[in-house]
Amino acid sequence: MSSSPRPKGLTILVPARDEEERIADTVAALTHDFPDADVLVLDGRSRDRTAELAEAAGARVLRVERLGKGEALSVGERAAPAGPLLLVDADLRGSLRPLAESTADLGVAAFRTRVGGGFGVAKRVARGLVRLRTGVSMLEPLSGQRLVSPRARKACFPLAPGFGCEVRMTIDALRAGLTLEEVELDLGHRATARDAAGFLHRGHQLIAAVVAAGPLGVNYRGLRLPLLGWTTVNESDPGITVVALLGFLDDAYGGHERGFREHVRAGRTTGVLKAVGIPLVGLWRTRSLSGALLFALSANLLNQLDTRPGRCLKAYLLAGAALGAPLGRGVLLIPYDLRERAMLGDAGSNAFGAVLGLKSVDRFHGRIRWAAIGVLAGLNLLGERTSIGRLIERTPGLRELDRLGRRP
User: Fold this and answer.
1) What domains are defined for the chain?
2) Is residue 209 within 8 Å of residue 140, measured between CB atoms?
3) Which of 71, 101, 142, 256 is most exposed, with minimal Cβ within 10 Å?
4) Please, where are the H alpha helices in 306-365?
5) CA separation (Å) from 287 to 65, 292, 367, 401?
6) Are the C-beta atoms of 361 and 296 separated by less than 8 Å?
7) In this structure, are residues 243 and 281 in contact, taking their beta carbons and an 8 Å threshold?
8) Do the Cβ atoms of 275 and 345 come closer than 8 Å?
9) What is the band of 1 on the pLDDT scale with cuts at 50, 70, 90?
10) CB neighbourhood size of 258 (10 A)
């Protein structure tokens, strides 16, 4: 810890839901310790007087429609001016002034005294996940009290969803080469007990941490979500598994290139690897040029459609029902996709398209197959030159089907 002055331009983000018993005292303590800071309470659809009491205590309140700690903090970060952030749980007791004096890119408050809680399973798993991804061991990987420098803010936001946000924030900061410091402080909070509610909360925390440590993507709203492409791995068809792997490489290591032309201009990209690899997989699986074309064009088309929640899976389910493709995984995944709790990513959308391609090869022969290739090639070209999504949104009937079940 350093004796340097408190950071200038500090914004304090306090995610809160149904915290009317604590929020006023928390805000009052923060405004006392940091009189020049902007205290922003992120109210997650509270069913009590949390927002009213926070405003009365001197905070600005931003009402967040989406539930989830990581989602609320990401909304607050976008609303905050440039500069450092102090993230604070709504039920905190104690002063964070020593934490605010840290010179590290990411400062984390470690509770000096443990109060309540379970058997430490969630915390041990979180420590293991951070150590696995970064090689660094932490005392408090789940602590919500964090000082985030502008550099760490750029590296870590938007945050992972839910209670996994702290674990992934730590991983992102360390993997970006930023500095981390844990500051042990006399702090308190409302501890969970060893009862059903407490174990349920820690179970959610544990699952969220595991999900957050895995592959994530950013959707069109700027939300960071788990990528579920790995669920499309098909042990009975190695070709689909290889396509999913190629898509995963693009999810994990791809740049900002969009479309075949941008990938070609950029040179050796994961997109070029997919453009070469998927047709070769199709040639291997179908043993014909026309089959390889149908396979690759189907895989790419569904990838082009995966720009809005549910769009790719709706196309898969409709086409799959006509072609006799397996629908189970699509049915299971579409609620999570539509509610923006997860994303398919390239791994999922390419794999689902490849399944349709194989079923099309089984169904279509001769001139009908070449006609299908022509239609798919035309749609792929349209997607390269303009946007299939915009065409869908301008077409009555398709527009309503596209929006069905999606969040406004």
Assistant:
1) 11-214 (3.90.550.10), 228-403 (no CATH)
2) no
3) 256
4) 311-323, 328-338, 345-363
5) 51, 8, 18, 36
6) no
7) yes
8) no
9) very low
10) 13
Task: Give yes or no for a contact between 14 and 27, defined as CB atoms under 8 angstroms apart.
Answer: yes
At 141, phi and psi to the nearest 5? -70, -15
**C-alpha R_g of the chain:** 24
Residue 329 CA to residue 334 CA, distance in Å, equals 9
Instruction: Say what the pLDDT of residue 184 is.
Output: 93
Helix (H) or strand (E) holding 42: strand 38-43
What amino acid occupies position 3?
S
- Residue 404 is classified by DSSP as T
Question: How high is the mean pLDDT of the chain?
Answer: 90
Length of the chain: 408
Distance in angstroms (rounded) separating the CA atoms of residues 68 and 71: 5
Amino acid symbol at 53: L
Tens of pLDDT, residues 132-141: 999 999 999 9
CB 72 within 8 A of CB 44: yes
Structure tokens at 84: 């450092």
CA atoms of 65 and 322, how far apart (whole Å): 38
Question: How much is the average pLDDT of 325-342?
Answer: 94
CB 170 within 8 A of CB 144: no
Token pair for residue 25? 């005292």
Q: At what angle do helices 345-363 and 238-253 cross, to 10 degrees?
A: 150
